[in-house]
Specification:
Blueprint lengths: L1 H33 L4 H8 L9 E5 L4 E9 L3 E6 L7 E4 L3 E5 L2 H7 L8 H5 L2 H11 L2 E6 L5 E9 L3 E6 L13 E6 L3 E6 L7
Antiparallel strand pairs: 1-2, 1-5, 2-3, 3-4, 4-10, 6-7, 6-10, 7-8, 8-9
Length: 202
């Protein structure tokens, strides 16, 4: 009878050790999976979140905070739909985001495995979107990362890593007579770009 109890105890102990080892392996696999999750993947999940809770808060590299919802994600940028007081879509390079204030439920949901994204969205870069703004002659407000300086005008050209901005008053069409100057702006210097109120992002 004692031997039966001994073997039953031994079997229980081995089962417990096996469960503990399996849990440790599952935890390590989860850590490995999370190590491969990029910020853009999590922002992509946040684009489909329920908007019944408070808006997300994006702390930007210029020191400002944008209360907005994610409306699109590209290879190296995010499109934001501000809740207030800004009018117009916002385009931000991922490098312009310092942190995102997110409800805990969305933190957990965005860390779960996500479905494969389309390869097209993976190829749409910040420069590609800016070239579309050039084509459509959309007026913009550009907020620079250092010092939070704000420039308004129209993007004339977009290169590989910078764009040409013709400076003029916000909300006005680009007319040669109204242009007050020109700037070459590196992509890396941009914190975020606001489109004129009536202009769609793409």
């Amino acid at each position: 009878m004692r031997w039966d109890r001994f073997f039953a105890d031994l079997e229980d102990q081995l089962a417990s050790e096996w469960e503990a080892e399996r849990a440790a392996l599952d935890t390590e696999a989860e850590r490995l999976r999370l190590s491969r999750v990029a910020l853009r993947d999590r922002l992509g999940v946040l684009a489909s979140r329920e908007r019944t809770t408070s808006a997300l808060a994006f702390e930007m590299s210029d020191g400002s905070t944008l209360h907005a919802e994610v409306s699109g994600v590209g290879a190296d940028w995010v499109a934001l739909e501000p809740t207030q007081p800004l009018a117009g879509a916002v385009l931000a390079p991922l490098e312009g985001i310092v942190s995102v204030l997110v409800p805990h439920v969305d933190v957990l949901r965005s860390a779960r495995p996500v479905a494969e994204r389309s390869s097209l969205s993976d190829r749409v870069t910040f420069g590609f979107v800016l070239r579309d703004l050039v084509r459509r002659r959309v007026g913009v407000g550009v907020t620079l990362a250092v010092g939070g300086r704000h420039l308004t005008g129209t993007i004339d050209r977009a290169g590989a890593d910078h764009f040409d901005l013709a400076l003029h008053d916000s909300g006005q069409p680009r007319r040669t007579t109204d242009v007050t100057g020109h700037r070459l702006v590196p992509f890396a210097a941009v914190s975020w770009i606001r489109l004129d109120a009536d202009a769609p992002l793409i």
